[in-house]
Amino acid sequence: MIDNIEPPPPRRKRQSFTKTLVVELSRQITEEVIKCGEKLPTESEIMSAHNVSRTVVREAISRLQASGLVETRHGVGTFVLDNLNTHGLRIDPATIVTLRDVIDILEFRTSLEVEAAGLAASRCSAEDVALMRKALDEFNQALHSSNVVASDFRFHYQIALATRNRYFTDIMSHFGPGILPRTRLNSALLAHSDPEQYQARLIREHEDIYEAIACRDADAARAAMRLHLTNSRERLRKAHDQTEMTNVLFGIPHSCCRR
Question: 3-state SS of the chain: helix, strand, coil percent to 5?
């Protein structure tokens, strides 16, 4: 009988599943678990791995296509795109090799992520806040491990996602974890900081960003993000200036500070 037919699940719930799947697949792409040019798992495999419906999988794939992360080839499958070519960006993360390059990237990130934090505070959902909290908890736990870069990037990427503006996530996806200074050099060592004090400052700065966004305080979120990135830049700028001065005093030729 018609009366016994169950109504379809609420659209909001499906959207929540879709967003969670988009975040997870985006993470796998940005962290190169699925590399550029590689094929995504099939719809059935994704359904089984994440316990979601085919509709959720297709909506998630559609959003990834809109973000320029993947393309679907009819009859073949869905593949991760080369973001450098797809978005027309001419900045190759692999060319960030000197200490000066890292400082310049931090200046660029400040212009980008300060506004992202403000927008995230204005637009984030309870689910966004929960995902940021999870990423931040993983970062705090990973500070002494090799997984710290991935969890640090995930926190900043979650903020970009919460802006509801795909261009923020496009740029973050293009750079991937390589946008973080920690992937290029030992920031604490260069800044002559005690590792424990350095890590405590990082935790406090990230927590301040999270708290401002969770409280939906856009001005405070911008200020906290600006302070975090400015502190990182100034620590490295001092190290850069000290290195340059040492080279001048001892007649050492200028050289790149590579990883």
Answer: 70, 5, 25
